[in-house]
Every structure is written in C-alpha cells, then in structure tokens.
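Before any further analysis, backbone shapes were mapped to integers, which produced the following:

***
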Amino acid sequence: MSISFFDAADVERFLPFDRAMDALEEALRGDANGVAINPEDDGPRLFSDAPDGEFLLMPAQGPTYSGVKALTVAPNNPERGFEKIQGLYILYSSDTLTPVAVLEGASLTAIRTPAVTLSAVRQLANLAPEGSEIPAAPRVLIFGAGVQALSHARAAALVFPGASFDIVGRRPERIADLITALSEAQETAGLTVRDRTSEADQAVREADVIICVTSASDPLFDGNLVQNHAIVAAAGTHGLERREVDDALIGRADLFVEGRGSAQRENGNFATALSADDWQANPPKNLQDLAQGNATRTPGKPAFYSGVGMSWEDLVCASAIATTEIEGDS
C-alpha cells in the first residue's frame, strides 16, 4: 500500500489560496455528480485534554475521500518559539477506507482558514447593494499579527488587488515581522502595510474590510464605528467564552456563518446577542447559502461573517491537494 506524504512545502505548492477558495465554493454548490456539502451535516469537533493544551480531532466524510485532522493546541508554544497548532491530516478512500495520503496539518490549516474567510468575504462583496460596494482599492484592517494574520493578508491581497493594509496587534515585534513577511511574499510584495495599533479606532472607521484573527476573550473594537458598507470577518477564536466583536455590531449587521450548528455550539461572537429563539426564527445564512446564491445583503448595513473552523473544509482542501497530485497538475 502506497501512502503519499505532503509536507508543508507540498501543501502550499499544490493548494494556493485561490484554488482552495474555488474548491470550497464548488463543494458547497455540488460536484459533477450533484453531491453538495451541507455544513449543517458536519459533526462536532472533538476536544480532549493534552499536557499544557488540548488534542483536537476533526473527522469528515465525502463521496470520494474521507479524512481526519489530528491536531494539538498548545497556547504557551508561541512564547517558546513553537507553533500554537500542530498536527497531521490523514486522507482515506471513502470506498475502502484505505489511507491514501498524509498531509502536514498546520500548513493545511494556515491555508484552509483564510481560504474560507476570504471566500465568504468576496461573495459578500459581490452581494453589496448598489451604492455600498467595496472600493476598487479597499482599506483592509487586520486585527492580529500571527500566522493567520499573515495568511489572511496574503489571501485578501488576491481577492482585492490594490488594497492597502492596516495592522492592529499587541506585540510590536510581531507586527514588524508580519510586515517584513508580507513584503517578501511574492504575491504581496509592494503592498502598503501600516501599523495602526496606536490609532485602532480611527483605523476601524476608515476600513472597508476588517478581518479579526486573534485569541481575544473580549471585543476588539466598538461595533458602532464600522462603516455601513464594510465587511467584517472574525475567524480567530472558538468557544462560547471567547469573542472578537461586540453585540453592537451583531445588532446592526447582516449575519453570516460557516454553519449554523457549529456557530451555535462554539462561536462566542453570537453567544449573548442571539437567543435560542433567534437561531430558530431567523438564523444567519451559512456558507452554502452564499455559494448557492440564496443570500442577500441589506442596504445601509455592514456584513458580518464569523467561523470557528469545520471538518468538511479540511476534507475539501486535502482532497483538492490529492486530486491535483494524482492529475499531475502542479
């Protein structure tokens, strides 16, 4: 039995952000056989205690491939020079449940997460009501300066060529490293990137797109400052006790989620703003609604998208890598 292994360099080579975004949207619309992924069918992620952290298992199944991502989450690792999230993805044939590939998990996550976020953002931009369009050269504000901030900035630069970027973070040295990394990345070389930490409120007022990728427990900014045409995306936290935006933004925005079930279980951004009755009577649209054209935006309202990470997304991305390698399309 031959099992292919894809290291971090292979994952990035076979799965550029635009390919990942397209694969996710195609999966939600339906493949050639008419099989569409429904985020509401995705099972809960499985957490278990680990030394100074936790294990995270994310199984998912599909018609051709199934798989499981096995990760460790170590909150103290960044201070020790190691990655917070590490692990592997194991891909199986759905027909025989035979392992066919193993992929380096952190690099898969580093591409999957921004691909999901920016897929949602670009679709929301396309749904903008007349007069509320995102400018051709938008101002993109990113809260956070870690791995996901870099990945989201790189993906956003593909979706919004000509955008300028503002960064708000806690550690000046990490912001400096992020700006250097963006200037060295091929697809983002020459970007205008500024540290706006000292004037975060003004940066929020000016932003056309706001992306939050932090581990915050409390809202990062006053939601009343967000422009009416702006798109806000929060993808940095999971757990009902953590949040990146406040109820003011939730109350005035059109709401969109990865999956309604996962958001209700794990997304603290909605925990105090939406009741159980709200989830039943008027739930947010999910990613499949966006991909299948079943969502609209309201004039005069910002759009807010939030995700916590779902197992089906990793399966789609891992399957795209395996299919690309099999077809020899590198």
Remarks:
- Residues 8 and 107 are 5 Å apart (CA to CA).
- The first strand starts at residue 4 and ends at 6.
- The chain has twelve helices and 14 strands.
